[in-house]
Amino acid sequence: MSARTEQNGVRPGTGPRAVTIRPRLALRLSWIGAVLTLALFVVIAVILRTSETGVFFRLADQVSMVLLGALIAGGILLFARPRVRADENGIEVRNTGLPKYLPWEVVHGIAFPDGASWARLDLADDEYLPVLAIQAVDRQYAVESIRAIRELHARSVDGPS
């Protein structure tokens, strides 16, 4: 883990009151979509050689189709990456890219605006960081996740009790 996501050499989200959150529906749909996409491209690659299309497909074309399907499936799996780790020291948010660690001092609040698809961390100067791991489609799980994150934030702001 990079020094950018660590604080004092401790991995975020490993304390006694640590919370780890991942989306549920998006995770399932991403894996299903990736598997179906790859299977579709494999089937197309097999059928290309045997169908009468007027074009001659070779083994290299078939391999290319499977590789293209694998690349697209990998892109779909990016939607399975979101995760949040939080503890009494701060929060680490990983959307589809690299994780970003924020100490609780820079987080002004955790919001889930009406009509929003996912939660966000409110930061200074009207900036915010989207939290794709907490999604509206997860319903009660999203509510429980927001409550847990807000509790950790409130505990860190008010001081340990």
How would you describe this protein?
The protein has about 160 residues and is of the alpha+beta class. The chain has 2 domains: about 10-20 and about 80-160, Roll (PH-domain like); about 25-80. The protein is about 40% helix and about 20% strand. The protein contains 3 helices and 7 strands, in the order βααββββββα. It has helices spanning about 25-50, 60-75, 140-160, and strands spanning about 20, 85, 90-95, 100-105, 110, 120, 130-135. The strands form 2 sheets. A 4-stranded antiparallel sheet has the order 1-2-3-4, covered by helices on one side. The protein has a 3-stranded antiparallel sheet with strand order 5-6-7, with helices on one face. Strand 6 (about 120) and strand 7 form a beta hairpin. The chain is elongated, with a radius of gyration of 21 Å. About 20% of the residues are buried.
Please write out the topology:
Blueprint: E1 19-21, H1 25-50, H2 59-77, E2 83-86, E3 90-94, E4 100-103, E5 109-111, E6 118-122, E7 128-135, H3 140-158
Antiparallel strand pairs: 1-2, 2-3, 3-4, 5-6, 6-7
Assigned CATH architecture of the largest domain: Roll
Mean pLDDT over the residues: 87
CATH topology of the largest domain: PH-domain like
The gyration radius over C-alpha positions equals 21 Å
Number of helices, where a helix is a run of at least 4 consecutive DSSP H or I residues: 3
Strand % is 15-25%
Q: Biggest β-sheet, characterized?
A: 4 strands, antiparallel
Binned, the helix content reads 25-40%
Query: Globular, elongated, flat, extended or rod-shaped: what is the shape?
Result: elongated
| Number of beta-strand segments | 7
- What would you call the structural class? alpha+beta
- Distance separating the two termini: 31 Å
CATH secondary-structure class of the largest domain: Mainly Beta
- Kindly report the spatial arrangement of strands forming the biggest sheet: 1-2-3-4
Point out poorly predicted stretches. Answer: 1-7
